[in-house]
Amino acid sequence: MQALLRNGGARALANAGRGAFAPAGTSASSLIAPTAGTLGSPRWIGDTGVPENYGQWKDGGPGTGFLGTPKNHRELLEKRPMSPDVLDIDGERVHYKFPAVALSSITNRVTGCVLSGGVAFGGVLSFVGGPETLPAFVEGFKSWLPFMVYPTKLAFGFPFVYHTLGGFRHLYWDKTTEGIDNQSAKASSIALFAASGGISAMIAGWTF
Predict the structure, then answer these.
(1) Which among 101, 98, 96 has a CA at the least distance from the CA of 85?
(2) Are residues 150 and 190 in the same domain?
(3) Band of the pLDDT at 12, cuts 50, 70, 90?
(4) What φ, ψ does residue 121 adopt, rounded to 5°?
(5) Which is nearest to 155 in space by CA: 101, 109, 106, 203?
(6) Of 28, 48, 69, which residue sits at a domain end?
(7) Which of 40, 68, 87, 100 could make a disulfide contact with 189, Cβ separation 3.0–4.6 Å?
(8) Binning pLDDT at 50, 70 and 90, where does residue 131 land?
(9) Are residues 34 and 111 part of one domain?
């Protein structure tokens, strides 16, 4: 209890000492009351204290204009690109170049989504119509749109081949930690695109 009284007395003396340097017309209660600073420690900016609209353009207040903040900074903030930003503010130009390694990584994710969507479509179709629905759908598609058979098989074959070969490449990277430097990754990415395209074209050319 005595320690608490001593601490309270020291705080009161400190606040009273600050009163000698406070702006004219400041009441003692405003010095003791907590403000924006530490408890019991008033904070002053010039002779006016901390304005309520400090740092904001509100009710005609100056805000941070003295720091060079433009009046339309809210509008500029809405145009600020999200992180990681790919497109410029106009939404048309691209910030960065996409090397072969980046395109390979993006393609790996896209092909994975395509494969998941294809499996989900076949599963839902078989669940609703029975196990014979999917083969009947394929045969009907081949008879209705024969000119679309090769492009469709190529569109489904490329994701399967690319994602499979890409998976083997990642297994090799994880097992050996080799081939992950920029030059090797670029070479393997180009080879992956070429091999996947060639194998997919051959698979699509088969009649089945």
Answers:
(1) 96
(2) yes
(3) very low
(4) -60, -50
(5) 203
(6) 69
(7) 100
(8) confident
(9) no
Rounded to an integer, the average pLDDT of 80-85 is 64
DSSP H helices in the chain: 2-18, 28-32, 73-79, 100-129, 133-144, 149-176, 182-205
Q: Which residue has better confidence, 81 or 168?
A: 168
Contacts of the segment 202-208: beta carbons below 8 A, 24+ positions apart:
203/153, 203/157, 203/161, 204/150, 204/151, 204/153, 204/154, 204/157, 205/150
Domain coverage including residue 199: 100-205
As for how many domains the chain has, the answer is 2
- With respect to residue 79, please indicate whether it lies within any of the assigned structural domains: no
**Neighbouring-strand partners of residue 87:** 94
Identity of the residue numbered 80: R
Tell me the C-alpha distance between 100 and 102, whole Å: 5
Q: Which one-letter amino acid corresponds to residue 131? A: P
- Pairwise CA distance, residues 158 & 35, whole Å: 66
* 134 contacts 119 by C-beta, under 8 angstroms: no
Check whether residue 105 and residue 167 sit in a common domain. yes
Residues linked to residue 94 through DSSP beta bridges, in sequence order: 87
Q: pLDDT at position 5, please?
A: 43
Q: Which of 26-40, 60-74, 162-176 has the lowest mean pLDDT?
A: 26-40
